[in-house]
Amino acid sequence: MNRKLIAVAVLATAGAGGWYYVNQAPPPPAPVAVGPALPVGVGALGRIEPASRIRKLNQPGGLAVTRLERLLITEGEEVREGQLLAEFADAQMKDAAATQAEASVAELRASLARVREAGRASEVAAQRARISGLTAAEEIARRDASRTDRLVPSGAGSEAVAERNRYLVLRLSAERAQAEADLITLSTPRAEDVTLAEARLAAAAAAWEKAQADAELARVRAPIAGTILRIFARPGDQVGSDGLMELADLFRMDVVADVFETDLGRLSVGAIADIAIPGERARVTATVREIGWQVRRTTQAGTDPVAAVDSRTVEVRLTLSDEGAALLRRRTGMQVQVAIRPHAAPVAAR
C-alpha cells in the first residue's frame, strides 16, 4: 500500500514539473539581422616573369646541323632589337653565294637595258650617215640615167651606158631601203627579246633574294631589345635541344598567378594586388592586366592529404609597380604569394 502511494506521488510531481517547463520556459531569442556580405579578395601562388616573356633563340636554319662559329654577346649584356648575336660556320659560304647571285642580277639588268636600246648611239648615228650617203648616190645615179636616156634617141648616147645607169639607180635604191630597215631594227627592240630578258632578270633577282635569306639563316639577331639571360652553346659547339640562348626585356616585369577557376568571378582587370616576396619584409604592389582564356589542369604533388591534387587554374598576369620591377629584375622564375584585393563595395542609394 505504501509503495502505491509513493508511485502516485512521484507521477504527480513529474506532471507538475512538466506543466511548469511548458508554461514558464523563457521565449526563444529574436533573429539577428544579417547585413550584406563583405567582398572577399583572391589569394594565389605566382611566379616572376618578364612582360616580354622569355625568348629562347635557336638556330634559324631549323634542321640544318652547323657548329657555332662566333658568339658576339655575353650573359647579362643588354642588346638592341636587330643586333647580331651569333654566326654559324656556313655564314661565309652563304655570303659568297649571295654575292654571286647579286653579280648575276647586275649582268642581266645590263643585258635588258641593251635589248631595250636595241643599238648603241654610235651605231644608230653611223647607220643614219650611211643612209644619207646612199640617198645622195642614188640621186646622182638617177640624174645620170635620165641624161643618157635622153641622148640615146639622137644617137649621141649609147644604149649600153644608159642601161648600166638605170641598173645603178635600182641597186642604190635597194641598198638605201635595206639601210633604212636596219636603222629601224637598231632603234626599236623586238617585244619577244625584251620579254625574255625581263624573265631572266626576274629569275636572277629571286635567286638573289633566296641567297640573302639563306645567308641570314646563318646568323642570329635579337628579336627584341632586352638582356641575355643565359647562353647554352659556345663557339665550336652544335646547338642542342636547349637552344642557343635566352633573351628577355627586364624593364617590365610581371607576376603570373595561378588562380583557381572558382575565384574567377571575383577578379577584374585593374584590380590591385599585394605581392609577398620570400626574404623581403616589405610587400610590393601589382595591377591585374590580363586574365587568361583557358582553364588548365594543375597537378600538385605533395604529402598533404587534404591538398588539391587535381586543381584547375587560370593564368592571371599582373604588372608590377616600378619599385617591384626594379626589385625583382634578376629574380625571373621566383615563386611569390599574391593577394588580390577585393572590389570596392557598392554604396547603397539613400
- Order of strands across the biggest sheet? 1-9-13-11-10-14
Shape: rod-shaped
Order of helices and strands: HEEEEEHHHHEEEEEEEEHE
Helix content: 40-55%
CATH homologous superfamily classification of the largest domain = Efflux pump adaptor protein, beta barrel domain
**CATH fold assignment of the largest domain:** Elongation Factor Tu (Ef-tu), domain 3
Write down the Rg: 50 Å
Number of strands: 14
Plain-language structure description:
- The protein is α+β, with helices and mostly antiparallel strands.
- The protein has two domains: 41-90 and 222-342, Elongation Factor Tu (Ef-tu), domain 3; 100-212.
- The chain has helices spanning 2-24, 91-117, 121-151, 159-187, 191-216, 322-327; strands at residues 42-50, 55-57, 68-71, 78-79, 84-88, 219-221, 226-231, 245-248, 253-260, 272-276, 284-291, 296-299, 310-320, 335-340.
- The strands form three sheets. It has a six-stranded antiparallel beta barrel with strand order 1-9-13-11-10-14.
- Strand 10 (272-276) and strand 11 form a beta hairpin.
- It is rod-shaped.
